[in-house]
Write a structure and sequence with these properties.
heterodimer; A: 6-stranded mixed beta barrel; 28 helices; 21 strands; 51% helix; B: alpha+beta; Arc Repressor Mutant, subunit A; 3-stranded antiparallel β-sheet; 12% strand
Chain lengths: 902, 114
């Protein structure tokens, strides 16, 4: 049979087709010529003339190429051998991507695990970042937001950012004396109930602003005019509302100007609407209404102004602080200044991203810690995937070696491997965005349940219309993840040495270095998982600490808030009716006691004062005050240490008080306080001093802050003071929600005109104050579990792969008499070595992480090594779990089969 | 115009039609197609390799034909060409055009001879 191909290939050569295409055409035409040749032979021609006649079909040297040129020319210009150097970068990358997709499709199990791993890591990062972005990273839509600073003051030992509320004196001194600010404006964040004729009442954020507020911020009106200095001087009853309020409540009707509405019950006239997009000074609290700051009673104890400064060009916050602190100190040194303030220090914070609010104070640290945690998680996911890719890369070494032999450039192999990991990361990010969408939604719901939250922060819708920050972050994280995962496998792939990899019978070989790299990656996963799990333990322990040692019994306690504001009751009526209500509540089956008080624990800050004990007039102790009815301590479950409870007889006698242990210690030291007197001065919102006889001492109970130790507290008699207590507490023997409806009925029967504002369990009230801590605990526990799971996968992957690779060796050992248990020991020892190495790296990291967390979150129980010990135990368990299947497989290796394996 | 040149021109116009027509009934390989053309034309129309295959590839690229390697037991694998849906439409319209053209020519020549 004649050889046609060389003849055909010679004619095709000028076309420079791809080898594959060329081969295909040659095969088809060669067949045709062959058929023709056979036919001619059959017709009786000699072999020689049949050959020439068949070859004649090609019609000379160049006709075939000429005819083909127009058909084939624009088709295959690129080299098809993967990894062969080419000069068309774009086509090469497309080819890499195509090939990567093919690899992903070929091993769906691996791809699924990899994509899910990355999606969880990336999704968690996007979710937390989105929240941070929405809460803290947005600059305010005002003129030169970078120059804005917030003026705060705080106690030196208090880690919280502080308060923005200054006396009129302090404001004037700082305004007139400073050299660093171009403007010092009054603008506070308040809560208003807005209502009015044909306008449904709504609780919103608003502001009490000075006359220069809008001008200094560079805000213009959409319609009408904004508040000016005239309004504050005249204390005009006017209001400015936001564009969004105008849209949602008035449907952009210009007739809004001149409308009368009420803000906290006070009638005001709307004079203008701010420009679209302006929402006040905080990213967390969308302000919708602004009233002119009313000078009112400037000397009243409750009077304070919120301050915001605009730095002069070139002035730093440090310079501003130095300058203003001296002025602030001068204000504090005045004789009539509040003694509480004396210890305060001034603090200047940049306000371009919004002023601090309860929400931002509550959320900013948790979010930073969570961001760090999810960062660790992503790192762990990367190490995990890198390990899996490395193992897979080792089994593909033969392939890589063949490519190198065919002339693939190492850079090209590097690029191909990186393309694969980048593509995985890209798909992972896509799934991650999907996960983040739900995760962020859930997080927001949890945050919104917090005590100080009202409505959603301004930019929380950000996931639905992602901004440049979020997109940039997502892109960057996807790229970074792809590179991190792919770096080690790519290096190892490009370092293929064909000579050894292609040897017949060579174990799908790794070098010692690659093996060490694989183990190192697993150890680093164990280390990172140890950090995550121990942090989770820390936060979970912290949360349970917070929820215990309260000083009162939090279970089976129902809290009812009543609204006496519109009732017109006087103290005597309240005293009689409340006692009647308590009697009837006590008669409800399942209720063991009930009581009234002004505040309930964790409800919010109540009154405070400075107490000086009889005989120690020079020493003032800051104390918290609560006004309570009899049976308060029985109902809340706070123990009496000495003395007695209030009784109905006290109402008419001289003032008596019950103090807690902390107050007794601070005021009286070791002396017995019963029967002694205590004088309270500077009581919140009142003037003048009051002296009480101490009749009882009770155990310490948390007042408003779970994270601080119980403050020195004075309990005074609600009825004796002639106050009305709106907090009703009911101790039950059964689930408190079981009596809620009966309580409602009873209350309505006794206090006919008093509406119930809310009914809530004590546990719920406590939980609403520790939203960040609960989130921490829940999320970090979730991340810890995820980390441990990833470590299992990583460890399992490597062990399973090692056992598969060593099947031959294990078979030899067993043939030589090794018992199944010996083989198992090899695998388990391998696993435990990696876990121990991981623990050795992870333990210092975990200790360090604990310290960092403690510096951010005061009160974290860092002294206990328990979380790390527990985490280490978990990691060892994880190691054994991961080793179980591979060890079993190793034990079941049949020497006969294994030795045939080659 | 000598006879050879005129045949080239004829073939150019009709080649596509012939190929599409021949694979309409069932898929065929290149040699089969060339044989059928030669046989049915009584040897007057012949395609040699250098023009048949480029034409097949062209039709394939236009999406009128679809070529596929088929392996039959005991034989070498061969590339079979099948008419695509689009090819079928093209064939129908070309056939119609061809019939109209022939009918037109016939009318002219018959009128002259009558």
């Amino acid at each position: 049979m004649p050889e046609w191909r060389p003849e055909i290939l010679r004619r095709l050569a000028p076309l420079r087709l791809s080898p594959a295409r060329e081969g295909e055409i040659a095969e088809e035409i060669a067949q045709h010529l062959d058929d023709r040749y056979q036919e001619l032979l059959a017709a009786g021609l000699s072999a020689d003339s049949a050959f020439r006649a068949a070859l004649d079909e090609l019609k000379g040297e160049d006709l075939l190429a000429r005819n083909l040129r127009s058909v084939e020319s624009d088709l295959y210009r690129e080299p098809v051998v993967l990894g062969k150097g080419g000069n068309n970068l774009f086509a090469g990358i497309l080819q890499d991507i195509r090939y990567s997709f093919r690899m992903m499709r070929k091993s769906p199990g691996f791809t699924t695990v990899a994509v899910l791993t990355l999606a969880l890591g990336i999704g968690a990062n996007i979710a937390i970042f989105t929240m941070m972005n929405g809460l803290m990273l947005h600059t305010l839509p005002v003129r030169d937001p970078g120059q804005l600073v917030e003026i705060l003051h705080h106690y030196p030992d208090d880690p919280e950012p502080g308060f923005n509320g200054f006396s009129w004196d302090a404001y004037q001194i700082m305004r007139d004396g400073n050299h660093v600010l171009s403007d010092l404006i009054i603008g506070s964040l308040n809560v208003y109930v807005v209502g009015g004729h044909e306008l449904e009442s709504q609780t919103v954020f608003g502001g009490n602003v000075g006359g220069t507020y809008f001008e200094t911020l560079g805000v213009r009106p959409a319609i009408g005019r904004l508040i000016d200095p005239q309004d504050t001087t005249n204390s005009s009853a006017v209001a400015v509302v936001s564009w969004s309020f105008w849209k949602s409540r008035f449907n952009l009707n210009p007739a809004i100007l001149g409308q009368k509405i009420t803000a906290n019950g006070t009638p005001v006239t709307i004079i203008g609407v701010t420009q679209r997009g302006f929402y006040g000074l905080s990213n967390q609290a969308q302000q919708v209404i602004w009233l002119p700051f009313s000078l009112g009673d400037r000397s009243s104890p409750g009077f304070s102004v919120g301050l915001l400064g605009r730095l002069k060009p070139g002035v730093s916050t440090r310079q501003a602080r130095a300058d203003l602190a001296t002025l602030f100190q001068a204000a504090l040194d005045r004789p009539d200044a509040n003694p509480f303030m004396r210890r305060m220090e001034l603090r200047i914070e940049p306000a371009g991203n919004g002023v601090s609010t309860p929400a931002s104070q509550m959320l900013s640290t948790p979010l930073k810690v969570l961001m760090a945690t999810v960062g660790l998680l992503l790192l762990l996911a990367c190490a995990n995937l890198a390990g899996l890719l490395l193992a897979r890369g080792a089994s593909r070494q033969h392939e890589m070696a063949v490519r190198v032999c065919l002339g693939a450039a190492r850079a090209r192999l590097l690029r191909q491997t990186l393309t694969e990991s980048l593509l995985l990361s890209l798909v992972g990010s896509a799934v991650g965005i999907f996960l983040a969408y739900f995760a962020a939604g859930a997080l927001i719901r949890v945050f919104a349940a917090g005590r100080f939250m009202m409505g959603l922060p301004v930019h929380f819708e950000v996931l639905k219309n992602a901004d440049a920050h979020a997109l940039l972050f997502t892109g960057a994280i996807a790229l970074l993840t792809g590179l991190l995962c792919g770096a080690a496998p790519a290096m190892s792939a490009s370092n293929t040495t064909p000579a050894s990899a292609l040897q017949p019978g060579s174990k799908i070989g790794e070098t010692k270095r690659q093996r060490l790299l694989g183990k190192g990656l697993v150890a680093s996963q164990v280390a990172l998982a140890l950090v995550l799990v121990s942090l989770a333990g820390l936060f979970v322990g912290y949360l349970s600490d917070l929820r215990s040692n309260l000083g009162f019994e939090r279970n089976n306690l129902l809290l009812v808030t009543l609204d006496f504001a519109q009732s017109g009751y006087n103290a005597a009526q309240f005293s009689r009716l409340s006692q009647e209500l308590v009697t009837r509540l006590n008669a409800i089956p399942g209720v063991s006691s009930a009581t009234f008080s002004e505040m309930s624990p964790m409800e919010g800050p109540g009154a405070s004062s400075v107490a000086s004990a009889e005989g120690h007039p020079e020493k003032g102790t800051p104390v918290s005050i609560n006004y309570i009815a009899p049976d308060y301590f029985e109902t809340y479950g706070t123990p009496f240490l000495a003395g007695r409870d209030f009784s109905a007889h006290d109402e008419a006698s001289s003032r008596v008080a019950i103090i807690n242990e902390a107050a007794a210690r601070d005021c009286f030291g070791n002396e017995n306080p019963i029967g002694r007197h205590i004088t309270l001065s500077h009581i919140t919102l009142t003037k003048g001093d009051k002296t009480y006889e101490v009749v009882g001492v009770v155990g310490d109970a948390k007042y408003n802050d779970l994270q601080q130790p119980a403050p020195p507290t004075i309990y005074a008699d609600l009825f004796q003071e002639g106050f009305i207590g709106s907090q009703l507490a009911i101790r039950t023997r059964i689930d408190p929600s079981g009596v809620a409806s009966v309580v409602r009925l009873t209350e309505a029967a006794v206090l006919k005109t008093i509406p119930i504002v809310r009914i809530i369990g004590m546990n719920e009230q406590i939980d609403s104050t520790i939203v960040p801590q609960r989130l921490f605990a829940t999320l970090s526990a979730g991340f810890g579990a995820l980390g441990a799971l990833l470590a299992v996968i990583g460890l399992y992957g490597l062990l399973a792969y090692t056992v598969a690779r060593r099947t031959h060796e294990i078979g030899v050992r067993m043939a030589l008499g090794a018992a199944a248990t010996d083989v198992m020991r090899i695998v388990v020892r391998d696993a435990l070595w990696m876990v121990c190495a991981g623990l050795a790296i992870g333990a210092p990291l975990a200790f360090w992480g604990k310290r960092v967390a403690a510096s951010l979150i005061p009160g974290l129980p860092v002294a206990s090594p328990l979380p790390i010990v527990v985490a280490a135990t978990i990691m060892i368990a994880v190691g054994l779990i991961a080793a179980y299947l591979p060890a079993r497989r190793a034990m079941r290796v049949d020497p006969m089969v294994a030795l045939r394996y080659e | 115009m000598d006879e050879a040149t005129s045949q080239v021109e004829w073939k150019k116009g009709s080649a596509e039609l012939l190929i599409l027509f021949l694979v309409e009934a069932r898929p065929r390989h290149g040699y089969e197609i060339s044989k059928l053309i030669e046989q049915r034309s009584g040897g007057t129309v012949r395609f040699h390799v250098a023009s048949l295959y480029p034409l097949l590839y062209r039709l394939e690229r236009r999406g009128w034909l679809h070529g596929r390697w088929v392996e039959k037991s005991g034989q070498r694998r061969r590339r079979y060409y099948r008419l695509t849906r689009q090819g079928r439409r093209v064939l129908a319209s070309q056939l119609r055009g061809w019939h109209e053209f022939v009918a037109g020519i016939n009318r002219i020549t018959e009128a002259e001879n009558a």
